[in-house]
What does this fold into?
Amino acid sequence: MFEGQMVFPQLLAFLPRRILDNCVRRYHGNKRVRALSCRDQFLAMMFAQLTARESLRDIEICLTAVQSKLFHAGFRGPIKRSTLADANRLRDWRIWQDLGLALIDRARQLYAADPLPSELQTAAYALDATVLNLSLTLFPWAPSQRDKAAIKLHTLLDLRGNIPCFLRISGTRTRDCAMLDEVPVEAGSLYVMDRDYNDYGRLHRLHQAGAFFLVRAKSNLTYRRQRSQTVDRTTGLRSDQIILLKDRRTFRKYPDRLRRITFFNAETRRRFVFIGNHFLLSAADLVELYWRRWDIELFFKWVKQDLRIKHFVGNTPNAVRTQIWIAVSTYVLVAILRRELRIERTMSEILQILSVTIFEKTPIKTVLNEIQFQSQILQNHKQLSLFDL
It folds into this structure.
């Protein structure tokens, strides 16, 4: 793979050209294009994500500074901020959505063997949302409060490999539990959620579809206990009960049995109550899966910090969706590289390393595996300029 190539084209080798071409052709992305093909648009935006560029001018200046390296890095034309702005504004964002979904399918295959509790026959997912704050002046189409703008990014994360497999953008006034109407439901899979998704009618539809769920219980939950099961209190478990909802209105929405698990976290001195419909997994396994739900918070942190979603380089809905899906595609492409090259580093560390070695003529596996080289890069990350290497 190396053959004297820079790190950037080595990373792109994990993206088959055929997949990108099919996505572009499906939505006529290159129709009547004289400059900046969809591929160059993707490379420029991917460069921005990997190297933390925060504006179109920033992207243009940095790429112009390494103009002699661009052809060998994969670019086939100059990158001008006005042309890139037009491409983000006008080209169908579904090109990048389809590309992201194709990469997600590939990544999920690679991470399918990652361990989950043996009694869980299929996948486990974490569902959550994060708010991305915007300027109301620049984004008048996304009002949040009286003088603010924001959007919500709803994500379904596959806990095998922490791969995002479902994303939706909505206004902040959309209730989180409404996403349960859009999430693809797989029979036998487990969906782990926080308290905001505690909607008994929607949870019962999940149950009827053959899926399992685990969600934080509301504080005003009233129930009738049918049976209690023995728990090991040294693990923090306090109770494991089979219950029926007591309130007439909630029982009408969810008339079947539920499992209620109480857990006490000794470190934070907090008590957690979960309800779900999986009766075969042990209570300890279910609680462990709920803690793994925090992986989605790490994903949101990477999205906001490492992938630079917080700073949009376009103000229209199409440009925002384009940037989000290219950021997700970049993240998943790095996840594919991590698994295929068997890199032991975390995703955050890999992204940091790539940000300062992208134009180095070094085997990418060497860059990511040489501990001494990595430590030096991470130590000097804030002091080094990308183009000083």
Notes: Residues 382-389 have pLDDT under 50 and may be disordered. The longest strand covers residues 124-134. The longest helix spans residues 317-340. Residues 131 and 152 are 5 Å apart (CA to CA).
